Amino acid sequence: MIHKLPNILTIFRIVVTPLIVWLLIGFDGFTLHLIALFLFLIASLTDLFDGMLARKLQVVSEFGKFMDPLADKILVNSTFITLNILDVMPIWITAVIILRDMVVTLLRWAMLANGASMNTSRLAKLKTTFQYVSMYVGLIFILLGHFESLDSVVAILEEWFVTESIFILTGIVTAYTGFYYLWINRAFVKSIFQEKE
To answer: What domains can you pick out in the chain, each with its CATH number?
Structure first.
């Protein structure tokens, strides 16, 4: 059973995502929004531990290699879209994140289909960190919105561009890593265009 734990954590991340979205969009109560934040915390921790556990237990599988990044994208993109719907997150950041994920995923699939392996970068971890920080900030803002007494705190944070700065940095880092992936895998990208000529 313990050897299946990494994949169980990955699947949990996919299954819990619609529940998080439903709790945030379908309800307006503090308690349910707090539960959504708690579930998101657990889901984000599974993102940290499933791959680590798979390597430690030496049970890295093709299923895990495929499903882990897919589960990440489902959680991240769904949460950003939800925060955008709730008018917490600017739409351009959500668009950048989704577009970047689509480009990198299509590139990865194309390379796999041609028997090539994608060159990766540690910058992806920096991108993930910024994205999760932005999502936590957005979710905390939703919770703060339930207390009129904290309106002044929210106003000060907005006035000092604290949240906006975090969101802008997230968008920039996300876009940069997308371009960087295309650059370090440019030989394969170039070969695709040469075949079409």
So the answer is: 2-196 (1.20.120)
